Amino acid sequence: MHSPVVTSTGRDLRLDLFRGIALWLIFLDHIPSNVVSWITIRNYGFSDATEIFIFISGYTAAFVYGRAMRERGFVVAGARILKRAWQIYVAHIFLFAIYLAEISYVATSFENPLYAEEMNILDFLKQPDQTIVQALLLKFKPANMDVLPLYIVLLIVFPPVLWLLQRAPTVALGVSAAIYVLAWWLNINLAAYPEGVWYFNPFAWQLLFVFGAWCAMGGAERLGPALRSPFTTGLALAYIVFAIIIAFTWYIPGFNRLIHLPIWFEDLIYPIDKTNLDVLRFAHFLALAAVTVRFIPRTWPALNSWVLYPAIICGQHSLEIFCLGIFLAFAGHFAMVEVSAAIWMQILISALGIIIMTGTAALIMWYKTVEGRGAPATTRPKTANADLAGGEA
Amino acid sequence: MRLMAAAALAALLFADGAVAAERPRCGVPDYLLFGESPLKRVSSVVETQKRLRIAVVGTGSSALAGPDGPPSAYPSRLEAVLGQRISPVVVKVVTLLRTRLTAEDLAKGMDKLLSDEKPNLVIWQTGTIDAIRRIDPDAFKSALEDGVERLHRGGADVILMNMQYSPRTETMITVSPYADAMRVVAQHFDIPLFDRLGIMRHWSETGAFDLYAAGRDNVLAHRVHDCIGRAIAALVIHAGKLPAVPAPQAGQ
Predict the structure, then answer these.
(1) Residue B121 phi/psi, 5° resolution?
(2) What is the least distance, in Å, from the CA of B246 to any CA of chain A?
(3) Which of A7, A29, A155, B17 is the most buried (most CB within 10 A)?
């Protein structure tokens, strides 16, 4: 079943690979109290799989729609981007329906008096009119359902961003960085329902998306010499090691007594703010990316091996597999609660989830092939297909 | 050799904690319970006045429902256990619990609490409602800082207590940003954090309690609260450097 995935479209399989791995890690991280999530990168530094996902999504969006914009113009490319945003919106609402089903079940079956307070999470079932409308407006977002709304907002504003990126990439990146700084400075974020703000602040996280897009628009080549210098690699490695040491002080009992961080230093770095894409997180992602591109070349033979194939095909169908992963995390947690939360069960659920994600990606690929959408690029007209050119946008 | 390794692996994988659950042991490892932050006002008031007034400020998870709820909830258990352990010091625990209040709501009531109850130590339990409503973690952190400052100005020591570990609602309530904020604030003010989340998770993992249970099980709730009361008593003794007798065995 395995066929070479490299095409003449100049697709960088590393993007698919790492997006696929990010999707697996997001799935593992979303199953609470899962022993397997100890392997995920969030335990070994500041950033996690979300950064990888958003960066690569920005990269592929610029790659796919950038070509469409050059060939077909602003309006056509803009319309395609908005169509994609609409698909993601529908997927998000579908996940919300599943969430409602799960939480309604919990509401009828959970009576443990120890957790009377936690039962307040079910309050919103009492005003479904408000809740469902607010969910449709993307203001009410249950836990673990914050990434897709961020993605939707980023895509909606992407057409003018892409336009500027094509004309003056550095200016576009500068504007993006300025918005990031302003968001920090003035505390700007979108409002959420019933109160609070978005868990992933779009004004902050857009920096990663636009940076990904900037890299796709030639920025990566411009950074090339700097990325190849031993100094950059050394700096990135040093930062990664620093992050590992700090992360170990959170998880390993006694380690923080061994490495006693001064109070002023803790005041400086904590809290490491995920909502506003903390500078430490962004820098950690940059360090990981720099080391990755330094040691894994685009022509790495393993990219065509069967070992990495499952992750690559998951990365190539990221929207479907992302949604599936969120659903499987719900379902896996449900199985842990209802059947057993033993360690063997956690390992089983994690492995089964990844197998289902991979199987589904293979099925989608097969389906697109028989539908004629996945035909080799050489036989297809010049309508740059989002699925082929570096996966979906 | 290979057989032994397989057996060891199987033992590890199937260690469901069913055996441990038969004995109601709720010990807490030192690293989860004890820090280095002192309770100086507690130390001095116990030494000079031989009495200790504690106020528990919080929300629903500091109480238990039903007629036998209040005496079984952890504030009462703390009063009983701490009173025994540091006798003849007289320990009085008062509670100011209001359901569905966020940290900001609770912080506003601190001045009144200080003038009404004149506590030497305030145990501030919060975070759950903020996590459920998904309050901005920055706003949550500011509210905590505001509350702790008010309490310190009013002459009380403070212990922050974070959320319960609730495995059934884990996919629905994201507690970690709020737990992180509480840890940061505790570190900043050099005050103890009672890590209820980590401690209850430890009990769940070691099989001391089946916190996945869904049924209306009052015995479980009472036992958990008893253990929380004992653990807080140990923390107060440790952080206040109070002379105390060793802890009696839990569940007796």
Answers:
(1) -140, 135
(2) 24
(3) A155
